[in-house]
Amino acid sequence: MKSFLKFNDKLQNFGAYLSSFLFIALTILIVTEIVSRSFFNVSTMIAGEYSGYFYLASVFFGLGYTFKEDGHIRITILTSKLPTKGKKAIDIFAGTITLALLLFILYYTIKMVIESYRFDMVSETVSETPIYLTQLALPVGLLMFSIAVLAFIFKRLKYDK
């Protein structure tokens, strides 16, 4: 159990670092586009497309870390009046429902990536980027988020909080 929780912490921290790196890359790409258009009257031709890809990947890679750090919005108006055991039970129930929903979405994002790969789908821009490469961030990020939720459930089952 402890090794799984350690693995989760390292995985979510990696996701946060990757997310941060992608935001920096997105910023550099946009600044490069602005400078090249303003001073050289030239476009990178990919800034709009790739900044969208980087933003999407950054959000999905950061979901698990945000959850681990209790950064997602939680409505505590009902649970604030409950005793510790009641809070634990609701956390476990909500975590289980969340995990089930995430696994459902994960399944369909994996199917989407596989279909994009099978049909050799590419973007309709100059770069002709293979779509499956840009879609990979969804199932990877959702898998990381699912692991964070599973760790949350395990913590609630094992430890008093």
Report a brief summary of the structure.
With 161 residues, this protein is mainly alpha-helical.
Describe the structure.
The chain is mostly helical. The protein has one domain (2-158). The chain is 76% helix and 0% strand. It has five helices and no strands. It has helices at residues 2-40, 47-68, 84-118, 131-135, 137-158. Helix 1 (2-40) runs antiparallel to helix 2 (47-68). It is elongated. The model has no long low-confidence stretch (mean pLDDT 94).
Number of helices: 5
Q: So what's the overall shape? A: elongated
Give the overall pLDDT as a whole number.
94
Strand content range: under 5%
Main sheet record: none
* Rounded Rg: 20 Å
The residue fraction in helices comes out at: over 70%
Order of helices and strands: HHHHH
Low-confidence stretches: none
Number of strands: 0
Q: What count of domains describes the coordinates?
A: 1
Calculate the terminal CA-CA distance, rounded to whole Å: 17 Å
Task: Give the helix/strand class.
Answer: mainly alpha
How are the secondary structure elements laid out?
Layout: H1 2-40, H2 47-68, H3 84-118, H4 131-135, H5 137-158
Helix pairs in contact: 1-2, 1-5, 2-5, 3-5
Comma- or semicolon-separated keywords:
161 residues, mainly alpha
